[in-house]
Amino acid sequence: MALFARQLQSLTASGIRTQQVRLASSTEVSFHTKPCKLHKLDSGPNTSVTLNKEDALKYYRDMQVIRRMESAAGNLYKEKKIRGFCHLYSGQEACAVGMKAAMTEGDAVITAYRCHGWTWLLGATVTEVLAELTGRIAGNVHGKGGSMHMYTKSFYGGNGIVGAQQPLGAGVALAMKYREQKNVCVTLYGDGAANQGQLFEATNMAKLWDLPVLFVCENNGFGMGTAVERSSASTEYYTRGDYVPGIWVDGMDILAVREATKWAKEYCDSGKGPLMMEMATYRYHGHSMSDPGTSYRTRDEIQEVRKTRDPITGFKDRIITSSLATEEELKAIDKEVRKEVDEALKIATSDGVLPPEALFTDIYHNTPAQEIRGATIDETIVQPYKTSADLLKAIGRA
Questions:
Q1: DSSP conformational letter for 146
Q2: Torsions phi, psi of 328, nearest 5?
Q3: What domains can be seen in the chain, in order of their start residue?
Q4: Is 75 left (phi over 0), alpha (psi -120 to 50) or beta?
Q5: Which one, of 250, 184, 251, lies nearest residue 212 by Cα?
Q6: Which residues contact 336 (CB under 8 A, 6 or more apart)?
Q7: What's the predicted TM-score (pTM) here?
Q8: Terminus of the chain with fewer CB atoms < 10 Å: N or C?
Q9: Which residues does the UniProt record annotate as the domain Dehydrogenase E1 component (predicted)?
Q10: Among candidates 114, 147, 106, which has minimal Cα distance to 130?
Q11: Do 76 and 116 touch, CB atoms closer than 8 A?
């Protein structure tokens, strides 16, 4: 009996080693995700998804860049090197990285003021994001936009007014349909903006015209310091489009987000019109840096989410367990990301700022120099430079 036990143990160990070798050499692994909840839909995204090694490492790196970049921004704010508003995305990384993974060339994004990660994902550098936060010339818009107003070719910003991006996203989608593009506009808003009247005006127009727009509610549980249960009569945000179909997605699982966004994009691309998505997620920091985030929830609650639902550590465990990545590979990525952010910080805290003449630039497009009124009617100035590009060229920073 003892011999049989030893033989069985040996065979089992051998089988495990064989399985580990097979997995280690595998470049693609299947995972199961939490099913989506559906509204006015007969079927939804697959719950069985595949992931290859290249994508696994990229997604991990992208989420780590956003997390470390936001941590750096938080520290800069505490050091009073960032002034004004500053809304951090820490905890919600799987939403942005997962959606971006499903997007194709020509797709567009517009969001609210929690926009640093999206700006980076859609083409800006870490330096451009952090330098914009500190108001430096090296910033995304040379220090003129700050935390809430950054842009790239396919990213229509950060928007500082609650819900203002909702009808604008529908407008971008209208342009796409007019041009007969097979693209979508991902229009993001928080649960705090889900009760805005303009959202319902925008969804009505989008449905009337079957616009290719994804209205995505990133539900992190709190609108500023108000829990969703206290602000919304219905907290099933994916159903709030009424006649617009919707899906609920686990926003802490990057693979669930990617698969749902792929499915949603195919739905819009087929000409069926708009779709509402609710990403169930969580933010670790307060609404903004001026909010400690602990007066309306406990520190224990935050730590529990970090421990059990963190999008980065959860994804890390999955790709290591499935042998898509090793601890050493991920440590190397962490080191690389840390270096990239540290180098960006040096520029963000040492670069120069635009001269006062920059206040008069970028007011009108393609016009002669305009006479701009100052603080009083007696104070006027003719634009010395019409655009920031003209000014940067004049000071040798073009």
A1: -
A2: -65, -40
A3: 28-353 (3.40.50.970), 357-395 (no CATH)
A4: alpha
A5: 184
A6: 61
A7: 0.91
A8: N
A9: 61-356
A10: 147
A11: no
